[in-house]
Write a structure and sequence with these properties.
Blueprint (H helix, E strand, L loop, with lengths): L3 H15 L1 H11 L1 H11 L4 H29 L1 H20 L4 H29 L2 H33 L4 H5 L6 H7 L2 H10 L7 H6 L3 H12 L1 H19 L6 H4 L5 H16 L2 H13 L5 H25 L5 H24 L2 E3 L2 H5 L7 H4 L6 E2 L2 H12 L1 H6 L1 H8 E2 L2 H16 L2 H12 L5 H29 L2 H22 L8 H8 L3
Helix pairs in contact: 1-6, 1-7, 1-12, 2-6, 2-7, 3-4, 3-9, 3-16, 4-5, 4-6, 4-26, 5-6, 5-9, 5-10, 6-7, 6-25, 6-26, 7-9, 7-17, 7-25, 12-13, 15-25, 15-26, 15-27, 16-17, 17-24, 18-24, 18-25, 18-27
């Protein structure tokens, strides 16, 4: 019999390869944070168009989630992951070469199809091949790779920004300066190709093979992952589950709302909404923009975005370490409490800010800013970012106000930027140790075998749809409602989520998928 160490090493190897889809998802989604500053003036985008450039990926990810679960039930988990890797590579090349805004959006939407597929199928696959004692940690590898991708995107964005400012001949010949955002987007091609190649070392999901009557293949895979004796026990449990479902019609959306499914689908939907409506992708996809609002300037805002990635990575590792020790629910409670407090800190920090352009500030503005146009604003105190930006647009016009917004905010603002940094990092840490990885672990555990693909696709669809809305309207929210009100809204949603977790979410650690099915759904 294969040793436990050998079993563990094999499961870890397979989980890490499959979770590379999470890395690509995190990179693809967050690399846009460094791009928005440059495409907004280049393509003369409105705030809603800017939001669309960011969220278009999520729109097609949402659509992919509707079909990726059922498609994986038909073709297999592995084949759908190969498709996702191909879509990532095509999107990266097309985005880097985009000649127009519409072309860029279409290229990003192609990548969104890969995001939706990998986001659903990777954790599902890992849950189906992992022994119960390891499942929480293994599924969390996907979230770990997502945050690793986010961190790498923040770092490469900053690196390319700095290379674009270099006088070295090789950086100038590669045109990092004029084409910085194209380099940011195009780098994803390399990990996408590697993912496609590494997937050749991954077997098909054993539970999918059992669903298709391919018991011999499934037995070999489970035995390698869990040991021969455990394989026989697990196969019997899966077959028993399939026999119970044999007399039922094919899984349908209507079945998700049956009385037996009411508890698990309610938990899935609410957790899916809360994960996104508390603003995590506003932070990940617009981190430099948020930091610029505190007046620290462009280079510093890109550098601080790297801190967001590092904190996200560190606390995701902590979540993986403790998710099978402490359980899912304690992490959710601690994390949502931290998110609520952090968002209130951000709201208070921005609400206390004032904006004044004194004579010294006006003298140090870029030459392109017309002194005569902006002179009427001298020594006027604005008590909100909305009022200050409105005055700028009135003085300079929308296009010039957007172009020099960072310079003007840096010159005018009076606030404590460290409070904003601590608030953002506290929020990211709280998210990363809780609802970030725990949501996907819960999704892989809550739903019965026969309907798992459809159910995860459904709640994933809702999660992605909420993310799309949040990303699209965030630039508009900052411009219209202001930073303080925007973050206050996120904090209130986090408090609602905390109350729901305390009252409704069960603990799932240490139980097999079949035990959870009996306990939560009934058979």
């Amino acid at each position: 019999m294969t040793s436990d160490t050998g079993n563990r090493a094999y499961v870890v190897q397979v989980a890490l390869i499959v979770a590379m889809g999470g890395f690509l998802m995190g990179f693809d989604a967050s690399v846009i944070s460094g791009v928005v500053k440059f495409i907004e003036p280049q393509f003369s985008l409105s705030k809603l168009e800017l939001g669309w450039a960011v969220s278009s990926l999520t729109l097609t990810a949402t659509l992919a989630m509707m079909v990726s679960g059922p498609l994986s039930d038909r073709l297999g988990r592995r084949k759908v992951l190969f498709m996702a890797a191909s879509l990532y590579a095509i999107s990266a090349v097309a985005s880097a070469l985009a000649p127009t805004f519409v072309f860029l959006v279409i290229a990003r939407m192609i990548g969104g199809l890969g995001v939706g597929a990998s986001l659903i199928i990777a954790p599902m696959y890992i849950a189906e091949i992992s022994p119960a004692r390891m499942r929480g940690r293994m599924v969390s590898f996907n979230q770990l790779n997502i945050v690793l991708g986010i961190s790498v995107a923040f770092f490469t964005n900053y690196l390319i920004l700095r290379l674009g400012q270099s006088d070295a001949s090789w950086t100038q010949s590669l045109m990092f300066g004029p084409h910085n955002w194209r380099w940011m987007l195009g780098l994803e091609t390399l990990p996408a190709v590697l993912y496609f190649l590494f997937l050749n070392a991954v077997p098909e999901s054993p539970r999918w093979l059992l669903m298709k009557g391919r018991d011999s293949e499934a037995r070999d895979i489970i035995a390698r992952a869990s040991g021969r004796a455990a394989a026989e026990t697990e196969i019997l449990a899966v077959h028993a589950s399939l026999r119970r479902d044999a007399s039922k019609a094919k899984a349908s959306i209507a079945e998700l709302f049956s009385p037996a499914m009411r508890l698990v689908i309610t938990i899935g939907v609410v957790i899916a909404v809360i994960q996104q409506i508390t603003g995590i992708n506003s932070v990940f996809f617009y981190a430099p923009m948020i930091f610029e609002q505190s007046g620290i300037g462009t280079d510093a805002s890109f550098a601080q975005a790297i801190l967001v990635g590092i904190i996200n990575l560190v606390f995701t590792v902590l979540a993986i370490m403790f998710i099978d020790r402490l359980g899912r629910k304690p992490l959710l409670i601690a994390g949502l409490t931290g998110i609520t407090v952090s968002m209130l800190v951000l709201a208070l920090g921005f609400s206390a800010a004032t904006y004044t352009l004194d004579a010294e500030a006006l003298a140090n503005l870029p030459e392109e800013v017309s002194f005569a146009s902006i002179e009427p604003m001298q020594d006027v105190v604005y008590d909100s970012d909305v009022a200050f930006k409105s005055a700028l647009q009135g003085a300079l016009g929308s296009e010039r106000a957007t172009q020099f917004e960072s310079n003007l905010i840096t010159a005018a603002i009076s606030m404590n930027p460290m409070l904003i940094l601590f608030g953002i990092l506290g929020f990211v840490a709280s998210f990363a140790v809780s609802i970030g990885p725990v949501m996907w672990v819960l999704f892989s555990e809550l739903f019965p075998n026969r309907i798992r693909g459809l159910a995860i696709s459904f709640v994933g669809l809702i999660n992605s749809a909420v993310s799309f809305i949040v990303q699209t309207i965030f630039p508009w929210e900052l411009a219209t409602l202001g930073s303080a009100t925007t973050f206050l809204i996120y904090g209130l949603f986090a408090a609602i989520g905390l109350a729901f977790v305390l009252g409704m979410v069960p603990e799932t650690k240490g139980k097999s998928l079949e035990e959870l099915e009996t306990e939560l759904v009934g058979t």
